């Protein structure tokens, strides 16, 4: 090893000491020279260049200076001021160097820069800030124009001083730099990290560790850190890109999907080149959103120093529901984080580095208000809590703070307000591999964990259910307490409510100390469950999870019974000698409320139907004397009742008396008839997509064979376009369509994936029209669809699979199927990355088909041979129309014309880069209108192209 290399390594070693995660440094340089901005990162154990993302930005305005990912630079994202002027050093990446070289520094380059480094496994994430100051002459007489300490990192630079002298300078400089670094960091963030603020933050950390760790330990089986380390699958998308031009040319989405732990959630927006100032985290109930929030704050509170946020403050929307009248932001903060009260003015005057988490937007009982009370807002401005929250999200308040909001998805507040977020993170349920790791963490014994995991994956209904982490937690608890439950689970048609009832059984009956309970004890437990359910029902819309002693007394609930039997569901907290109880999750509260209502209503069909109409459709009954109607209920609250209502359906088959937890109690004849009529009546009406999904979830949760057999044939059309369906939703859909022959099944943009197509295989062949475009389907789905099309009972006449990734291999599967298929009339395979190879044998197979009339192949990747094969098919197959261009099909051209105009009029709502790409794709497909013989079509195409070109010129002018 040469002395020069040794020096380079020595310097990098000192760099690692200096630049920790979230660090800050200052660089001085000379105008007109090349400047190096330093940035280092801890290299992952299994370093892979393909997984490395490096982004340099100007701190103010998030202007991209340099972007590197997928093993290459991406100048298309680079700001024009830096094009051709920046350079990274890939040969240095394996040793953790992400420095950027800036050529010919100008005065406009002076200021703050931020370097972000992300690796696939979450390690090595840093957010390093650099302040660049420029001067007109060299800073140190006797040196050249470059900074020798910094330039030595770059192997192509030479240094005109002795090695020994430089090492000495580095050693001395490290000590001086550490002192200087702390001073500079405080100078830049003085309002945030002054001595008083820093001390208050440390007190707040201690407060969090003392008051939340015990609760977190109980919920995570006293293994919070191991659970926090469990990686989850998260999809990242920019809300302004979420516009669908289905059946045009390109998909409007360019989502990325990553597996990360909670601590690194907020590093994901950088991979999508999104700002992370306002981030929305959405997912199903029980999928782990609140767990992620708690993990983020716990990890921050336990860390020294605090990377990358300097302060993490968590608010729960159900706490906001209790705020009456007008208040101020200061009062909300003082109540939530008392140790910070003395320094709130200083902390929030410059909140850069403060992470504010607002957990559970779907539980908020107020509507967000965006246009109320215009004018300047500050932390002492009085307003209703919903207005204050709206101002924070819209950046009218605490603009520089980072804000993370969580919510269940597919809710009206999300659809209406997603435009206010820079980035949306969608957290998915467990994959099988994640479930296996969860079982290992839960049981801490590989043999037992392996047995549980094997049992789950061998039973499809349980497998889909346990994709929800809350259900995984419940199932693991059941089997941990009661070995006999394993057989019970196998025999059950597994639904959420039935798993909950089995959990109650295990809590009440699987007691090692006392196996059998007296009739009196059984009645006490039953009464406790129902009284608790009544309490939950009467506070259902409040979102409150806490149970105070006064509440328990009012409903005749003995706290000692809760502690003895239900500690896995309801957590007991003691503070200053006073005990309070809190539901571990909002879904558990809904379960108790649903069981109470089902027990009360199951034999009163008239009241049951009135209640269902009210809770599902907001239909107010003429007779409101019933005690079961929520006094504070409003028709717009139906969405908040969705999960409760389906759990109510599942609880209708719960037993009575001491068999309350028996989930196979048959429905009475009158209840069966009433439910069949209720389902039929609503299915025959013109209902919304969300209402159809709610009905299917209810039918699945009820899981009564008689009701399903009578109702299923009445489901004639299903439209879930642009609704993300979970694995459990797909299981419900499959169950509900078991006795149906559906005319149209529209599942475009439903995030199906190959697994979803596999789940629905048993029902797809019975449908006449199947639309599964834009679902990230690969050749695996093409193979499944091929099997369906070849089946003798296949009923599909129209199949749309556009904007997926079948590729050439997937296309071959489809051609093979068409040789045998006897039903398909229209097939859409546009935008599927099909190349010339995908057209081989196409003619041979299509000549065997007697039914196909239209084949759409627009926007694929055909070369000369591919076009020749297509032309041959057009020539030989007279009865088949093959559409390869938009202008060849009037219906397709009309959709492009209509939707493109809509896009043009709303261009300000969309990401510029995405909009440019999709407009250019349409232009490319439309081609030269001079080749079009029909004058009307020629004019229409010319108008579309003229409008698109105007928009592109406008965007180019704005970017310049």
Task: Describe this protein's structure.
- By secondary structure, the chain is of the alpha/beta class.
- It folds into 5 domains: 3-188, Immunoglobulin-like (Sandwich); 195-427, Rossmann fold (3-Layer(aba) Sandwich); 431-494; 496-509 and 517-665, no CATH class; 890-959, no CATH class.
- Helices cover 44% and strands 13% of the residues.
- The protein has a 7-stranded mixed beta sheet with strand order 11-10-18-12-17-15-13.
- Strand 20 and strand 21 (578-583) form a beta hairpin.
- Helix 27 crosses helix 29.
- The model is unreliable at 1-21, 138-192 and 241-254 (pLDDT under 50).
Question: Which characteristics define this entry?
Answer:
alpha/beta, Immunoglobulin-like, Rossmann fold, seven-stranded parallel beta sheet, 960 residues, single chain
